[in-house]
């Protein structure tokens, strides 16, 4: 009995080790491709203060972040400039500023929280309303722990779609400054889309690696060889 227990324990450990994997995700700059991959999603268009279902809140660390409609005014080098972005003068948007060097309570950041587990996210970004900035670092968390991070880089023309589809669930996105050599990133975001669907649950079972099957076969063979002589003695 003791040897059988050891064999079963080894088999369980091997299966558990095989199931462990790093975070896997695909990034999209083509919104059509993202749509085709996700199929069903919820959209927050920032047309009013009510958030779409599944969104818990969107928080700006500095208090600068807010939902706006129509052209908005930003301050650049002491000058006030009107900017309607590329979203259209009547469309709502979320606007915030991410800074590198301080704000009360820490670096400026935007935090998007969901009250559901999410596997996909996408939005139209304008990261050029105040010239080229730092770009945006996106950190995806679940249960208070970081799952993975990736960056929204500079778009040609300043505006474009950015999205991802992950095999790992997340319930929070923290947006901070990126690595470009600037002091801050002023950005606007519109048509934010997300999906709670678990891609892993809908995917076909992943076959076990050949090496593991060899290991399992060896364990089974050892058990058979161990038991077979007993059977012969019993028949005798």
Write the SSE topology.
Elements: H1 2-19, E1 25-28, H2 31-38, E2 42-44, E3 55-60, E4 66-69, E5 72-76, E6 79-83, E7 92-99, E8 110-126, E9 136-142, E10 145-152, E11 159-177, E12 184-195, H3 199-202, H4 210-235
Characterize the structure shown.
Keywords: Membrane, Signal, Transmembrane, Transmembrane helix. The protein has 236 residues and is of the alpha+beta class. It has 2 domains: 24-202, Jelly Rolls, CATH 2.60.120; 205-235. It has helices spanning 2-19, 31-38, 199-202, 210-235; strands spanning 25-28, 42-44, 55-60, 66-69, 72-76, 79-83, 92-99, 110-126, 136-142, 145-152, 159-177, 184-195. Strands 1, 2, 3, 4, 7, 8, 9, 10, 11 and 12 form a 10-stranded antiparallel β-sheet that branches. Strands 5-6 form a two-stranded antiparallel ribbon. Strand 5 and strand 6 (79-83) form a beta hairpin. The radius of gyration is 26 Å and the shape is globular. The two termini are 23 Å apart.
Under CATH, the topology of the largest domain is which?
Jelly Rolls
Residue share in β-strands: 35-45%
Structural class, by secondary structure, is: alpha+beta
Gap between N and C termini: 23 Å
Morphology: globular
Q: SSE order in H/E notation? A: HEHEEEEEEEEEEEHH
Number of helices: 4
Task: Give average pLDDT, whole number.
Answer: 70
CATH class category of the largest domain: Mainly Beta
Q: Estimate percent helicity.
A: 10-25%
Q: Would you count the extended β strands for me?
A: 12
Using the CA coordinates, give the radius of gyration.
26 Å
Number of domains: 2
Uncertain runs: 1-21, 71-89, 198-208, 229-234
In the CATH classification, which architecture of the largest domain applies? Sandwich
Query: What's the multimeric state?
Result: single chain
